[in-house]
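job 3f2a | input accepted
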Amino acid sequence: MTKLIGENVLMRIFIGEEDRYRHKPLYEALMEMLLEEGIAGATVIRAVCGFGAHSVYHTQKLLDLSADLPLIVEAVDSQEKIDAVMPRIDEMMQGGMITLEKATVIRYLPKGERGAKSQAGPGTGS
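job 3f2a | predicted structure (126 res):
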């Protein structure tokens, strides 16, 4: 895996918790595909409320356990790698929205390239 430093692309995929791809939650299918394709990093963020193209307001309420809350799948990599996965993402999504923006990556250290000193830093459990 190459280090990502400098200008790259941040992709945000806006979907709902109830969205599916081949009987699996869409966010899980997207994360598996991004990992399989070697994308540098990705995260799923669960929102507390939101609305989209249909103007249906989704929110989390104490007694509502099936709110279909918004999810955001964020991924960062080079423009070329993001462009390469877009056809697969298009195939997987039935709706939602994707945004792309330039992002400056300050630091990204793959596991095999960390120095012994950085492995014992804060938050590592060492």
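job 3f2a | The domain at 6-108 is CATH 3.30.70.120 (Alpha-Beta Plaits).
job 3f2a | closed
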